[in-house]
Amino acid sequence: MGPIYLDNNATTPVLPAVWDAMRPFLADVYGNPASSHHFGRKARRALEDARERTAALLGARPDEVIFTSGATEANNLALFGLAGDPPAHLLASPVEHPSVAEPLRQLAEAGFRVDYLPVDSTGAVDPDDLPGRLRPDTRLVCVMLVNHETGTIEPVRDLARRLEGRAAFHCDATQAVGKVPVRLDDLGVTSLSFSAHKFHGPKGIGALVVRRGAPLRPRTWGGHQQQGRRPGTEPVALAVGLAVALERAVEEMDRRCALIRELRTHFLSHIRAAAAPVALNGPEEGGVPHTLNLAFPGLRADALLMNFDLAGVACSTGATCSSGSVLPSPVLRAMGVPDDRLTSAMRFSFSPLLTPAEVDEAARRVAEVVTRLRRAGG
Ligand SMILES: Cc1ncc(COP(=O)(O)O)c(C=O)c1O
Q1: What distance in Å separates the CA atoms of residue 314 and residue 319, rounded to the nearest whole number?
Q2: How confident is the model at residue 327 (pLDDT cuts 50, 70, 90)?
Q3: Which one of 244, 275, 283, 314 counts the least CB within 10 Å of its CB?
Q4: What is the DSSP letter of 153?
Q5: Average pLDDT score over the chain
Q6: Is pLDDT of 377 > 90?
C-alpha cells in the first residue's frame, strides 16, 4: 500500500463529479460573466446558478453570497469589513484560525480593543460568558463553528442568541461546511465563511455569506461585480465546482459522517492499544469525527511528522515547527494543554474516500514509528 492521506483538514481531493461539472466552464463557456454579449450571458447564467444553489444550501439568499478566493480572504473581508472605524470593541474566541487571529491583531494595532472569551479544556466557549463581556461599544463578535485542530464544535447558535443583535457576529465555518449542518438563517450570525477545497471542491474559491443590509465595507475596489463588495471577474468554473461539491457534501453528510466516525474510532483504539501513552487533545465525543488531535508525550512533533511521512502517513502537526523548534499551537495553549502534550501534538484528519484497510494500515505505521522513536529515546 502506498502513502496514506490523513490530512483532510488541510485540503481534500476534488471529486470526479465536481471536476466533470467544472470542465466545460474552463474550455467552452469562457465568456466574462460581466459581458453583455452571448458568451458573457452564458457564463453569467452558470455563475448565478452556482450562487443560487450555494445560497439555498446555506440558508441564505443569492445576493448574500460573495464568492472569494477562499476562507482566508472571506475572513479578512468580514473582519475588516464589519469592524468599521476604531475605536470600538471586538470580542473573539482565542482558538480561531490564523486567518481570523491575525486580522484581529492588526485591528488591535489600529486602535480597536480586542478581548478574548475563555474556553474550556476542549476549546469550547461557554455562551453564558458572553453577555458579561459585551460592552456598549462592542461592534463585532467572532467565533468559529468547528475548530481546525481539534474538531470541537462551538455553540455558535447559542452565542448568537445571547448576543441579541447588539453587535455583528462573524463565524468562520470553514471546517464545518459539509460536515455539520450550516445555515445562515438558523445560526443567526451576520456572516459566515468557508473554502470549497475543504469538502472536495476546487482550491481558489470560497465565500463570505453575509446578511442583507449588514454594514460590510469592501476591502478591494475597481469593479462593480458582486455589488462592489468583492470586485473582480468571477471564476465561473470554480463557482460551479463549489456548488456541486457543496450539494454532494450536504446530500451525503450523514453517510459520510457515520463512515468517518467508524474510521476514527478504529484508528484511535488501535493507536491507544499499540502506542500508549497517547493523549487526546480535544473532545472524545461530540466534536466532528473528521479530526483527531493526538499527543505522544516524550516525542517531538517535528520528528513525528518527518517519520510518519517516511513511513507513508501524511498528517500535520498540532504545533508549528520552525527552525528546529516546536512552537506550541495557540489553540492547544488556550485549552490549557500541558507542555508535553503541546509539543508532541499531531493532527490526523479523515475523509469519506478512505477505506478501512487504509486506516488500519495507517494506524499500524503510526504505532510502529512511535514505538521506534520511544525506544531510541525520542
Ligand atoms: C478554520 C479555518 N479557517 C480558515 C482557513 C483558511 O482557508 P483557506 O486556506 O482555504 O483560505 C482554514 C484552512 O485551514 C481553516 O481550517
Answers
A1: 15
A2: confident
A3: 314
A4: B
A5: 96
A6: no
- Grid cell, residue 87, equals 475605536
What are the backbone angles phi and psi of residue 238, rounded to the nearest 5°? Answer: -65, -40
Instruction: State the Cα–Cα distance between residues 278 and 285, nearest whole angstrom.
Output: 16
Q: Which residue ranges have their beta carbon within 6 Å of ligand 1?
A: 70-72, 97, 99, 144, 148, 172, 174-175, 195, 206
Please tell me whether residue 27 adopts helix, strand or coil conformation: helix
> Which atom, in ligand 1's list, is nearest to the CA of 197?
10
Place of cell 455562551: 127
Ligand 1 atom 7: residue of nearest CA? 71
Mutate-to-test residue for ligand 1 from 175, 194, 205, 349, highest number of ligand atoms within 8 A of CB: 175
For the chain, what is the total number of helices (H) and then of strands (E)?
14, 15
Length of the chain in terms of residues written: 378
CB-based contact 227:210 (threshold 8 Å): no
- Model pTM? 0.97
